[in-house]
């Protein structure tokens, strides 16, 4: 659902979408660092952010603007696989960005997926986030949360019907995703919403119907988990989408949407 203050930007293609996202990242990180702060970001997993991470680390104009040593990196979710497994969200971000830009090792806060039990990995990350929260209060956990969205409306590893949708006391949960046949560790709705700015990155025609349903829903619904994420304490929500994903957003659905 779209509320006053939300922003939806439509890029002509996936490449322009990634450049828009890189601009948001670089600008906001440098703004926080410029006043002597530390910037905290929760990275998105899956295939969508690959282009963003490559652009931030590889294009000199972006790379030079990002205050890499002033950023603390976290993850919105993770597969329960070893950290250098091909499906690891950490591995993707590390290989395409973090290993190339001189981020201090103690600023990289990955989920400990090498633990044999997914619940133990969730508990350990819960502790990490609560340690982060203490000195930031009353500020949100994150300055920026990057999220993708699946064609079923899931975001992070919050799939329809999974535990993290309803948790009000946890920041991190582990659950079995039946249709994937795997355990996932994910930040909960409340943790992902504890942000100054939440940015969704959505690309591709296969997301078009779901994007329309999420943006035009009359109220948040667990059937579309992405619709549940809403930044707290006056935070901002931005949808960066390409034209393929926005193809069903026709008048009157475009009301309130920025080109």
C-alpha-based Rg, rounded: 17 Å
The unreliable regions are none
* Count of spatially separate domains: 1
- Computed structural class: alpha/beta
Secondary structure: helix percent: 25-40%
Mean pLDDT: 92
Largest sheet: 6 strands, parallel
The CATH level-2 architecture is identified as: 3-Layer(aba) Sandwich
- SSE string: EHEHHEEHHEEEHEHE
Distance between the termini: 18 Å
Which features characterize this protein?
259 residues, alpha/beta, Rossmann fold, six-stranded parallel sheet, three-stranded antiparallel sheet, 7 helices, 9 strands, 29% helix, 20% strand, globular
Could you describe the 3D structure shown?
The protein is an alpha/beta fold. It has one domain: Rossmann fold. Helix content is 29%, strand content 20%. It contains 7 helices and 9 strands, in the order βαβααββααβββαβαβ. The protein has helices at 14-34, 50-58, 60-63, 89-96, 118-136, 189-193, 208-216; strands spanning 7-11, 39-43, 71-75, 77-79, 142-147, 172-177, 182-187, 195-202, 236-242. A 6-stranded parallel sheet has the order 1-9-8-5-2-3. Strands 4-7-6 form a 3-stranded antiparallel sheet. Strand 6 (172-177) and strand 7 (182-187) form a beta hairpin. The longest helix has 21 residues, at 14-34. The chain is globular, with a radius of gyration of 17 Å. The mean pLDDT is 92.
